[in-house]
Design a protein that fits this description.
Length: 241
Amino acid sequence: MKGVILAGGTATRLKPLTSVVNKHLLPVYNQPVIYYPLEKMKQAGIKDVLITTGTEHTGQFMNLLRSGSKFGLKISYEVQEQPRGLADAVRLAEDFSDGEPILVILGDNVFQHNLKPAVAKFKKQKRGAKIFSVPIKNPGQYGVVEIDKKGRVLSIEEKPKKPKSYLVQTGIYLYDGQVFDLIKKLKPSPRGELEITDLNNLYLAKGELTCEVMKGWWVDVGTSFDELLRANQLVAKEIRK
């Protein structure tokens, strides 16, 4: 299995901090945000990682991460020349994956959950995809996931007024080799992007989508200054234990 970290986007919600610096390079306590998904990739046993980002920040990532050897990883890079959505960024990994399943993590996700057991189990699957969720108090702000007792996904709704559960979709996904053919079937959303929720719903329609509820805390750093601060506080507390 190979890993893909999506590190594009303009991060308008974190301006002026992101006016000159990619949000994934902002500090969370003692290291850049991008280090955290890289550490999770390594913890899961993945050694080959592709980072996708926009044209204006590629050099910054390469200067910081280089070959990835200091992390015990082999890091490659792909440029998303236009912001066409997360599913479009995943599409860039087709040659890199070379038919292997992939673990995809949004580069601004900072979390405690150990992905290694899920990755090991997924490798034994012949087909399908897995998403990861967390329970939160106000799920209507995110993609809300409804699952059955076996973890099979019943529905995913983007920002529903009446959420069917407290579980929300995080930026962590496992996909089999058919993901790239499914991306080719996607049509742009009203905002002109290929949405990753639409991709997941294609797996759902095939009955091949499961969900794992994550343990511990999870922060989507890119959503607000408050979440960026919360990530700093949580990481600092964990390091000081």
